[in-house]
């Protein structure tokens, strides 16, 4: 059994036990969207404090965090060649237009990279150096 199937089975158990609610499925039957139960959300926030996780906003960034998840439409300046502050980044999502080619030279910890609908014409060769990358989404590009 593939890891994705195992993950889907586990997620289905969580949905069946009402830990996730308001599940929306895509045309293939995969879970595309859901809401986390309030108690589960509070637990996740509590646990994430101990792991030094944070959600970065445009106005706030802490260099002390080990893992950072950024999900903004046009937050390119943080990951440009000359900017080394994004080094610990594990997950990076882009949706919509990407204004310039991104160098992955300082993003060695990246595990998930998603360029959904970004209309990319070229990807920097440094993407080949992302040895921890486990998921790359180039759908609708």
TrEMBL record:
This is Disease resistance protein winged helix domain-containing protein. SUPFAM superfamilies: L domain-like (SSF52058). Residues 2-44 form the Disease resistance protein winged helix domain. It comes from the Eukaryota. Pfam families: WHD_DRP. GO terms for biological process: defense response. Keywords: Nucleotide-binding, Plant defense. The keyword Nucleotide-binding applies.
